[in-house]
Design goal:
The chain is an all-alpha fold. The protein has one domain. It has three helices and no strands. The longest helix has 11 residues. InterPro entries: Resolvase-like_N_sf. This is Resolvase/invertase-type recombinase catalytic domain-containing protein. GO terms for molecular function: DNA binding; DNA strand exchange activity.
Length: about 60
């Protein structure tokens, strides 16, 4: 994914390798949430909203 046109600084890449059904099994997702709470992150760029959270499309409706 090319993000060179976006005015931002890449803080880190958070990637859970395994597919799990709940957030507690997603260590990288938990780490990303912790970084958000510590204000290390202002934006999250994701390849696909479906990868961010299962059933996100339904959740956002």
């Amino acid at each position: 994914m090319d993000i060179s046109h976006i005015n931002c600084v890449l803080v880190d890449i958070y990637a859970d390798i395994k597919s799990v059904k709940n957030i507690s099994g997603r260590a990288e997702f938990q780490r990303m949430l912790a970084d958000c709470k510590c204000k290390k992150i202002e934006r999250i760029i994701t390849k696909s909203i479906s990868r961010f959270r299962p059933n996100t499309e339904i959740y956002l409706m």
